[in-house]
Design a protein that fits this description.
401 residues; alpha+beta; 11-stranded mixed sheet; 14 helices; 13 strands; membrane
């Protein structure tokens, strides 16, 4: 008799309980995998979320809010600052390059960002050529991120109109005059960015002066910008730039890396609740395995007694006792791994569109190896108790009774 055949007959004999055990393990594994994929996305987004721009300058307020709006196009800006600040930053001896940004409008929920064209060369390098078309050079021209182009079906030469606000509102029809004013300004797509694997994939970029033209800004001295991204010449230069411009009235200068790290820490704190729920699921999965094997202890006692009487080795007997829990766990674990990656693949566009978080659903996350080892270890531990109880039976006494 082969041990696999024996184990499979035990599993099939208790179909309902076995299915419950497999399901609990699969759900737990899928939840953990999805959590790991999201955590990896947060880490990768933090690593390449701001490029070489070590200093960010904007209106006073939350540093995290400034960083999120500037580099991830999430949330509202902290306010505006005079364009004269950009002139001072550009003249600073410790600044390698600095680019201004303006925000305030959206296209079907995607932010329209006014940005100086040099930003793309500085952040992504010459290797990142346009997928189609060219960079904008005059008012009304725009380029779109790869995700915006694919989701909205935009091509070079297409035209569109923006809407006021960073998020497409539900009250557009109520605010007819404001919408008509903004929709009167038309953008022409002159280029499509290649996949950059950053939040810039889900943004529309145009000339810096779009906001002034749409909102009928006053003369140059009154013009305002949302933020300035600064590439310093050195780390010492970054400190100097931050110190100098933090002293300006109603202006804050922040270390981008620190602001992003603060955001990541907040996200990590938020995932603690999810991790707690995951631990409960793991305990429930272990309990299901234990329940399944404990419910069959009486039957297993007779099996063990019979195996001993026909001369089967201790190795064979222990495999038959522990193997059932391990097999159920392995089936649930495989299903859970597939379900977790499949869930990440199905939801990746929705997650990216709403948060800018890139989920690499096809990648093997380092934490998955620990998940596999830990889950199998739990299965073995949960199987040992019922196995010992069944193994201690006195074969002759059991058959006499």
């Amino acid at each position: 008799m082969k041990v696999i055949s024996l184990l499979w007959s035990h599993i099939w004999h208790r179909k309902t309980l076995s299915l419950l055990t497999i399901s609990s393990v699969a759900i737990t594994a899928a939840l953990v995998v999805f959590l790991l994929l999201c955590s990896q996305g947060v880490e990768q987004g933090a690593e390449k979320g701001y490029g070489p721009f070590e200093v960010t300058i904007g209106a006073k307020g939350s540093a995290s809010q400034l960083a999120l709006n500037t580099y991830y196009h999430i949330g509202a800006p902290t306010g505006n600052i005079p364009i004269t600040v950009l002139e001072d930053v550009s003249k600073n001896e410790f600044v390698d390059s600095a680019y201004a940004m303006t925000t305030g409008d959206n296209y079907n929920g995607f932010p329209i960002v006014g940005m100086e064209p040099g930003y793309f060369l500085t952040r992504y390098g010459a290797a990142k050529q346009m997928a189609q078309g060219k960079l904008y050079s005059k008012l009304g021209e725009a380029i779109v991120g790869s995700y915006v182009a694919s989701s909205k079906g935009l091509r070079v030469g297409d035209t569109f109109a923006g809407a006021h606000g960073l998020i497409q509102g539900l009250e557009e029809e109520e605010d007819g005059e404001e919408e008509e004013h903004h929709h009167a300004f038309t953008y022409t797509v002159v280029g499509i960015l290649p996949p950059l694997h950053t939040s810039d994939d889900r943004a529309v970029f145009t000339t810096l002066d779009y906001a002034w033209a749409i909102h009928e800004s006053q003369p140059d001295k009154a013009k305002e910008i949302t933020s300035i991204v600064v590439k310093p010449k050195s780390l010492l230069g970054a400190q100097s730039v931050k110190t100098v411009f933090a002293q300006y009235n109603n202006v804050q200068a922040v270390y981008t890396s620190k602001a992003i790290a603060d955001v990541v820490n907040v996200v990590d704190q938020g995932t603690q609740a999810v991790k707690f729920v995951t631990m409960i699921c793991i305990l429930l999965a272990a309990g299901s395995i234990l329940l399944s094997l404990t419910a069959a202890v009486h039957e297993r006692k007779r099996d063990v007694a019979l195996l001993r009487l026909i001369g089967k080795s201790k190795y064979f007997i222990w495999l038959s006792l522990i193997g059932e829990g391990v097999i159920l766990t392995c089936i649930g674990l495989m299903l859970g791994l597939v379900a977790g990656h499949l869930g990440g693949y199905v939801s990746r566009d929705v997650v990216f569109a709403n948060t800018g978080l890139q989920i690499q659903a096809g990648a093997f996350v380092p934490g998955e190896s620990l998940l596999i080892i830990f889950t199998l270890l739990i299965a073995i531990i949960a199987s040992v108790g019922p196995a010992i109880q069944a193994y201690r039976v006195d074969s002759l006494q059991l058959f006499r009774s």
